[in-house]
């Protein structure tokens, strides 16, 4: 058995059965092994940042890592923005990067690069496999590293000859370590803070933003009068009817400071103290009040459910009903507005949908009005590198076995970074509805000019203008095999949503906003 076959067999034995790929010459033996060893679902992305973004979306929904297949240092470089986003979202990915054969590397041929150096910037674990006989073991260790709670990017660099040489050995799965348990003192300290202070915020992140932990946090909040908020960095949030309506720390620095100002005590549940996305002149970096005291109930590598169960017990907090969001709203008619779109979405969203949100400035107010929708999962871009929404939607649809409707709320400027995702959606016949928010500008950056104190002239403003020439999203989508139509009103958008939600194939609605 060659190394490549031992690699594929080891991945499958370790529970990694999906490979997002964009291969080159050095990965040919891996690709050939996919035919010889059945069981790996292999999905082609037409640029590496699609591949890595799909792997991120996959992990968030499947709760287990997929592997990627990238080509040499430059292929890894193309995929790095979405590996960065995955690292910030704490998504587990087995990131396999093919590379020059070991004997060929000293000749410094064209595609030779500092693959390891690049990998280190986005990975928690990096290894170059050097012998076919070791590749199976290296792969099992990569899967283990990717599975370390809450999830990590593990990069396995694979020289071509290590793939093609005989002597491969399949490795048994290696168990990831159990997350460290919750310290009784952390629970007692949180309980004391909640009993004695009146200005307490419970800040949720990671799996603490999912329904089970949310419900426990809600019990604590109801019993003590504390407030609940999700960190801006929460990558995956359980939302909709029957779930707790938890607001997110706002993106804008001023709004975040205002939202957090009154809390002098913050209990962190898998969250970090909130900091601004950027530094701004005359503004602090941290978003909390200078005198705020933090208490860590659980760290990102711990189980928030265990922590919150402990807290519920310590406080003897009774069951608490989740507020009823009222009747399901009607779709809105007329000119598009963010609130109207959110309400229309709440009216029409199918049960158990997944929202991939890269709506950037248009989507800031989507949360309150979508709470009356049926239960759904909301995926956020948290690493700040735009170009995540479309591949994340694609990977999420694959993770859900094409059985759940994925709705990609997608700003136009960000969409242009990874629009090839549409081609993969068409090829895999994925039930993804993209609502393409076409405002023909980099709108958020207009506000950022003001925030940093810059005065934009015509040249500066033209750097934020996408309207000359205008992008025709219906034709772009159709050119990649995705049916599409344009909507200029919310009525048209609602009709297109309704018809696309019943289709098994992808559809793009270009909404002129
Ligand atoms: C990889 C990367 N490149 C560039 C940026 C800088 N950037 C932030 S937002 C933005 C424009 C977003 O425009 P669009 O997606 O159309 O959303 P809108 O602001 O119009 O709502 C840019 C270029 C970034 N965050 N990440």
Provide an overview of this structure.
This protein is α/β, with parallel strands linked by helices. It folds into three domains: 3-164, Rossmann fold; 184-315, TPP-binding domain (Rossmann fold, 3-Layer(aba) Sandwich); 338-512, Thiamin diphosphate (ThDP)-binding fold, Pyr/PP domains (Rossmann fold, 3-Layer(aba) Sandwich). It is built from 20 helices and 17 strands. It has a seven-stranded mixed sheet, with helices on both faces. It has a six-stranded parallel sheet with strand order 2-1-3-4-6-5. Strand 7 (200-204), helix 9 (211-224) and strand 8 (227-230) form a beta-alpha-beta unit. The longest helix is centred in the N-terminal third of the chain and has 18 residues, at 72-89. The model has no long low-confidence stretch (mean pLDDT 97). Residues 81, 360-362, 384-387, 411-414, 439, 441-445 line the site of thiamine diphosphate.
- The helix content, as a percent range, equals 25-40%
User: What percent strand?
Assistant: 15-25%
Shape: globular
| Ligands (ions, cofactors included) | thiamine diphosphate
Largest sheet: 7 strands, mixed
Question: What Rg do the Cα atoms give?
Answer: 24 Å
The overall average pLDDT, rounded, is 97
Instruction: Tell me the strand order in the biggest sheet.
Output: 9-13-12-14-15-17-16
**Assigned CATH superfamily of the largest domain:** Thiamin diphosphate (ThDP)-binding fold, Pyr/PP domains
How many β-strand runs?
A: 17
Q: Class by helix and strand content?
A: alpha/beta
**Name given to the CATH architecture of the largest domain:** 3-Layer(aba) Sandwich
Please identify the top-level CATH class of the largest domain: Alpha Beta
């Amino acid at each position: 058995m060659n190394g490549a076959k031992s690699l594929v067999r080891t991945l499958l034995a370790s529970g990694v059965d999906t490979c997002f790929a964009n291969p080159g010459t050095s990965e040919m033996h891996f690709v050939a092994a996919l035919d010889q060893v059945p069981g790996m679902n292999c999905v082609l992305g037409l640029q590496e940042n699609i591949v890595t973004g799909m792997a991120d979306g996959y992990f968030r929904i499947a709760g287990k890592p997929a592997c990627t297949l990238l080509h040499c240092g430059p292929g890894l470089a193309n995929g790095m923005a979405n590996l960065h986003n995955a690292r910030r979202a704490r998504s587990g990915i087995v990131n396999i990067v093919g590379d020059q054969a070991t004997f060929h590397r000293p000749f410094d041929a064209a595609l030779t690069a500092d693959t390891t150096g690049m990998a280190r910037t986005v990975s928690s674990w990096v290894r170059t496999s050097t012998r076919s006989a070791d590749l199976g073991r290296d792969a099992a260790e990569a899967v283990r590293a990717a599975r370390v709670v809450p999830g990590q990017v593990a990069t396995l660099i694979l020289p071509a000859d290590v793939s093609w040489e005989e002597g491969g050995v399949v490795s048994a799965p290696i168990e990831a370590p159990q997350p460290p348990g919750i310290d009784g003192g952390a629970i007692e300290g949180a309980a004391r803070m909640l009993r004695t202070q009146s200005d307490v915020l419970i800040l949720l992140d990671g799996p603490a933003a999912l329904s089970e932990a949310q419900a426990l946090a809600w019990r604590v909040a109801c019993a003590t009068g504390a407030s609940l908020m999700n960190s801006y960095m929460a990558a995956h949030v359980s939302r909709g009817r029957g779930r707790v309506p938890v607001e997110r720390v706002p993106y804008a620095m001023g709004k975040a400071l205002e939202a957090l100002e009154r809390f002098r005590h913050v209990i962190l549940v898998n969250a970090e103290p909130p900091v601004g996305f950027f530094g701004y002149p005359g503004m602090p970096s941290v978003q909390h009040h200078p005198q705020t005291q933090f208490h860590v109930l659980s760290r990102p590598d711990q189980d928030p459910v265990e922590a919150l169960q402990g807290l519920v017990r310590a406080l003897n907090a009774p069951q608490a009903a989740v507020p009823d969001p009222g009747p399901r709203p009607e779709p809105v008619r007329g000119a598009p507005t963010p609130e109207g779109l959110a309400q229309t979405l709440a009216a029409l969203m199918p049960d158990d949908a997944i929202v991939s949100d890269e709506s950037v400035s248009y989507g800031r107010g989507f949360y309150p009005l979508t709470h009356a929708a049926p239960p759904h999962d909301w995926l956020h871009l948290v690493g700040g590198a735009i170009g995540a929404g479309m591949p994340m939607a694609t990977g999420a649809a694959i993770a859900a076995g094409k059985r759940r409707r994925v709705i990609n709320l997608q700003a136009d400027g960000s969409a242009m970074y990874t629009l090839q995702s549409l081609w993969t959606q068409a090829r895999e016949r994925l039930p993804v509805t993209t609502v393409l928010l076409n405002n023909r500008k980099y709108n958020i950056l207009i506000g950022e000019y003001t925030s940093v104190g810059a005065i934009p002239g015509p040249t500066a403003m033209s750097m934020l203008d996408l309207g000359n020439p205008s992008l025709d999203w219906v034709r772009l989508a159709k050119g990649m095999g995705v049916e599409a139509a344009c909507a200029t009103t919310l009525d048209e958008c609602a009709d297109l949503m309704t018809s696309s939600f019943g289709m098994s194939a992808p559809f793009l609605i270009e909404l002129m906003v």
